[in-house]
Amino acid sequence: MIETLTKEIMASQLSQWVQATYWLWPVLEIIHFFGLTLLMGGLIIVDLRMIGFFPTISLQGVKKLLPFVIFGFLLNLITGIFFIYGDPSRYAINIGFQIKLILILLAGCNAAIYHFRVESYVLDLGSSSRRPPLTIKLVGLTSLGLWTAVLLLGRLIPYVGTG
Ligand code: HEM
């Protein structure tokens, strides 16, 4: 199935355009880096606050960084899809890339838990600087761990084996 998908991607016009446009790859790398800076830069503050650091800053205050985090993720998603179209057969069998995608899915599930189960607690806390309950701490810790692993695996893609 992966083989068929890879062949279909390679035959697409987008794939041929990415491969033939010499300036595109470095531009994509720059945007991918910019995206991950927004994502990680915002998340490190939100997650550390959820874990219990910086108690004088309100949880609702740090939540205002989330639109930047989501924008950074969308930049990574779009440029990441271009990377895949640029060299599908390389990434399809790269173990670092495969684990990275699984971790992104897990981080997405963790974000869904935050949205559906934890966000109401955060709103209940209002703008108070009280220490967060254990559930909030765990969601923050999981998020920080998963996104850090995604970052490291992204950088390791060229160095780890295939398949
Ligand atoms: C959302 C979906 C994402 C996809 C599909 C994706 C895909 C990719 C691919 C295919 C590469 C290899 C590019 C190359 O060979 O030069 C790459 C590189 C990388 N990615 Fe992502 N990525 C995504 C999200 C992220 C996120 C969220 C982070 C950080 C938290 C991240 C961090 C990195 C890093 C550090 C590199 C290495 C760039 C380099 O050193 O050349 N990626 N990504």
What does this structure look like?
This protein has 163 residues and is mainly α. The protein contains 8 helices and no strands. It has helices at 2-11, 13-20, 24-51, 59-63, 66-86, 88-92, 95-124, 134-156. α3 packs antiparallel against α8 (134-156). It starts with a helix and ends in a 7-residue tail after the last helix. The relative contact order is 0.16. The structure holds protoporphyrin IX containing FE (HEM). Protoporphyrin IX containing FE binds at residues 29, 32, 36, 39-40, 73, 76-77, 80-81, 83-84, 91, 97, 104, 147, 150-151, 154-155, 157-158.
Briefly summarize what is shown.
This protein has 163 residues and is mainly α. The chain has helices at 2-11, 13-20, 24-51, 59-63, 66-86, 88-92, 95-124, 134-156.
Keywords:
8 helices; mainly alpha; elongated; binds protoporphyrin IX containing FE; single chain; 163 residues; 0% strand
